[in-house]
Amino acid sequence: GFVHLEDYAPPAWRIPHAELAFDLEREATVVEATLRLEPDPGQPGHAVVLDGEELELLDIEADGAPLPADRWDYDGRHLRIDGFASAFTLRTRARIRPADNTRLEGLYTSGPLLLTQCEAEGFRRITFFADRPDVMPTWRIVLRADRAAFPVLLANGNPAGTRELDGGRHEATWENPHPTPCYLFAIAAGQLRRVTHTLRTAEGREVELNVWAQGDDVVRCHYALGAVERALRWDEQRFGRCYDLEVFNVVAAQDFTMGAMENKGLNIFNARYILADEESATDEDFLAIESVVAHEYLHNWSGNRVTLRDWFQLSLKEGLTVFRDTEFSADLHSRALKRIEVVRLLRARQFAEDAGALAHAVRPDRYREISNFYTLTIYEKGAEVVRVLQALVGEEAFRAGMDRYFADNDGRAATIEDFLAAHAAASGSDLSDFARWYAQAGTPELWITADYDEASGDYTLQVDQHTPPTPGQAHKEALPMPLRFVLFAPDGGVIDAAPETDAPALPGGGVALTQATHVLRWRGLRARPLPAFNQGFAAPVKLRFEYDAADLAALARFESDPFNRWDLLQRLASGALLHTLDPEQATVALGDALGALLDDDAADPAFVAECLALPDFDTLAEACDVVDVDELVARRESLLDRLAEEHVERLQRRYESLAAAAGDGLTAPAMAARALRNACLAWLTRLDPEATLAQAQFATATTMTARLGALRCLVHFEAPGAAAALAEFRTRWAADPLVTDKWIACLASRPHPDTLDDIGELLASSWWLPTNPNRVRAVVGTFSRANPLGFHRRDGAGYRFVAAQVEKLDGINPQVAARLLGAFETWRKLAEPLRHQARLALASLQGRLHSGDTRDLLQRLLDDA
Ligand code: ARG
Ligand code: ZN
């Protein structure tokens, strides 16, 4: 059944303090929980109801005496205790089986390690507890285990003593003094090694930072450790937030369902977001590591100190923390490149989610399975909504609003209303219309029409806002948002005059759109101007304005906003590919613009590389009402071929001239040089059936960025030497699961329908590890999300393959299986015969799925809403 937002009631029993003792063993761990339970005086007369799943209850006592059997009942999901009207202490002992836990929720094994993942509802698989975020005890955690197998014993909070026990066992105690919900509980035990660094916070607290990994992996933890320190300092400077414990521990795990987890004082990470050196990790990997490390660190305030009242508020921590981590990356590196990265993801994936069968609001009002709401909408759109708020109130008022939010809600379980109340108070603005951003699904569209009167020189822009219907939400209201714009004179000069308009002016320039329609009017312009909009992508919308190819090309020269310069070229490319512009004119204009960029040695090579990367398949498909996969891919390939041929000499020149700059080192210029060289190499390889450059780059590469860039070219263009390069790469990195995932993903994304045969071979080999989420994603996730020609095979075999894997994986790790089903979110837009094939593949799963995760998703995919 559904959980509904409107049904929220505060907990009838509170748990101010919890003490847990673990006797850790791989096969069977015994958990003793001692909980102080206090009734809410406002809601007397409730039984105590605790969550508990797959727990073997061994003992139960209240206030030191065994609880008689007629006072409690455990049905496998809930433990119900009757007959208490006032505070008491409950003690339970239960046995759990970590080594059998392939779901990776609760306590599980990853190789020799014992680890936990509790968010959202995994803690109930560890012990009996009120598994909801508004129950926030302080914690004392005791870990006991064999010293040889588990020399390191970590939990949340501060270390509070260790001692030796009999029989080669030892014990460590941890205390977490901050009120913390159980989804932030964590332990990690095993043969872990660390890199460490001690610093003093701006408040004067000495903090030990540790990053832990297994065995030799520890040498690849230095970059992550540096990222922790950078994030800590940035939050002090930018948001005035300090760290609040004596230690901050980070642990890398090879088996981890998601990216990482912000457990209080003990972040646990998917190893791919920790382990890196230049030999084994690409520049993109390094940047992703820094951003995920920052994301989890920054949760310490946005999520942990201020936590969530209920899971409907998920974006209150996730959207806000993504906003914060992208600001962190933008401040440390290039703001424009970060914005381009974010908008690419938003357009390719979040816009598609917002328009597909799984569309939901940033704050949904019901769910069956909360794990299915860790989505691009909650995270990325949620972050955009925070950015819109900042644009509307201005940066200064926004910072004051954040201070107020943290101050007013510290130690509390908050709601989106609390967040908006703090910002409304600090900025003095009425945010009641703004709250619609959280309730309304779908991507808003701005339709802008221009009118120029030659005689008077009057120029008007009419801005109409419209959001298309989404499942269960037919009618949409206007959303307040910034509209930034610049008018250019025909010679490229900026027209400075402010328009007459009823739309309020914004602190950072532009106006606030507050209604469905606004008009902006300029008087007495000497010639029809050329307008550019949405600089920096300040509003997360689809913007419609009737440009022709010449307009876009001119604007790309006039515009000083780097994001928009990139975006104008993306528009030219989309227009050429989707035929919304005259394809020939658009192609010529795009070719000229790219030629000029390639000739411009003063432009940041990383920016040029972004401009060479045309809109990807998902972004193009998102813009179509009906998706003809083969046609779209074919058009994109032929545009790329033509542009590559047009610029072959320029590409060669840049490839060569950046060779020295692209050597080793993680400096911005070196990374930029490698990015542009790889982009040039991919274009040049199209033209060279021998793939000479790619073979040479592969043979001489000194960084993974260069090596993988070359391997991708060889494999994807089916060049001679591809098999040999793959074999060499595979052998060299056979012992490294993360690098192995890279060649597998390279293979699984080869753009050809027969890639499915290679995948069949992989699945029959020892490379296939269905219990390892990274490996499953490298094989099945890459195939379904990054291989349109394979997944959308006309015979439906791609769909049937993914459906069959979903069914198998459902019995292993339901969250991973449910994620894979997401590849079908826009199946209704597919042109026949694909639509029919997709429906058949989905329908074949009906009645064959067992987890709540996959059943919820399948039902939403097939619902006729
Ligand atoms: N809070 C984590 C993060 O974003 C993600 C946890 C995801 N858990 C899940 N069951 N989906 O940093
Ligand atoms: Zn997060």
Core attributes:
single chain; 865 residues; alpha+beta; nine-stranded mixed sheet; five-stranded mixed sheet; 27 helices; 35 strands; 40% helix; 20% strand; globular; binds arginine; binds zinc ion; Peptidase_M4/M1_CTD_sf; Aminopeptidase_N-like_N
Q: What is the structure about, briefly put?
A:
This protein has 27 helices and 35 strands. With 865 residues, it is an alpha+beta fold.
Explained architecture:
- Residues 550-862 form the Peptidase M1 alanyl aminopeptidase C-terminal domain.
- The chain is of the alpha+beta class.
- It is built from 27 helices and 35 strands.
- Strands 2, 3, 4, 6, 7, 10, 13, 15 and 16 form a 9-stranded mixed sheet that branches.
- The protein is globular and about 90 Å long.
- The mean pLDDT is 98.
- The site of zinc ion (ZN) has 4 residues, from helix 3.
- Residues 119-120, 258, 260-262, 295-296, 318, 371, 374, 815 line the site of arginine (ARG).
Based on helices, strands and strand pairing, what is the structural class?
alpha+beta
Mean pLDDT: 98
- Helix content percent band: 25-40%
Shape: globular
Q: Total number of helical segments?
A: 27
Rg measurement, Å? 28 Å
SSE layout:
Blueprint: E1 3-4, E2 13-14, E3 17-23, E4 29-39, E5 48-51, E6 56-62, E7 65-66, E8 72-74, E9 78-81, E10 88-96, E11 106-110, E12 113-117, E13 138-146, E14 152-155, E15 158-164, E16 169-176, E17 187-190, E18 192-200, E19 206-214, H1 222-239, E20 247-253, E21 260-261, E22 266-270, H2 283-298, E23 307-308, H3 314-332, H4 335-355, E24 366-367, H5 376-393, H6 395-409, E25 413-414, H7 416-427, H8 436-439, E26 445-453, E27 458-466, E28 481-483, E29 485-488, E30 494-495, E31 500-501, E32 511-513, E33 517-522, E34 530-533, E35 542-544, H9 549-558, H10 562-578, H11 583-599, H12 605-612, H13 617-622, H14 629-646, H15 648-657, H16 668-687, H17 692-700, H18 704-716, H19 722-732, H20 737-748, H21 755-763, H22 773-786, H23 788-791, H24 797-810, H25 814-821, H26 834-843, H27 852-862
Parallel strand pairs: 3-13, 19-20, 20-22, 23-25, 26-35
Antiparallel strand pairs: 1-24, 2-4, 3-4, 4-10, 5-9, 6-7, 6-10, 8-9, 11-12, 12-17, 13-16, 14-17, 15-16, 18-19, 21-22, 26-27, 27-33, 28-32, 29-30, 29-34, 31-33
Helix pairs in contact: 1-2, 2-3, 3-4, 3-5, 4-5, 4-10, 5-6, 6-7, 9-10, 9-11, 10-11, 12-16, 14-16, 15-16, 16-18, 17-18, 18-20, 20-22, 24-25, 25-27
Arginine binds at residues 119-120, 258, 260-262, 295-296, 318, 371, 374, 815.
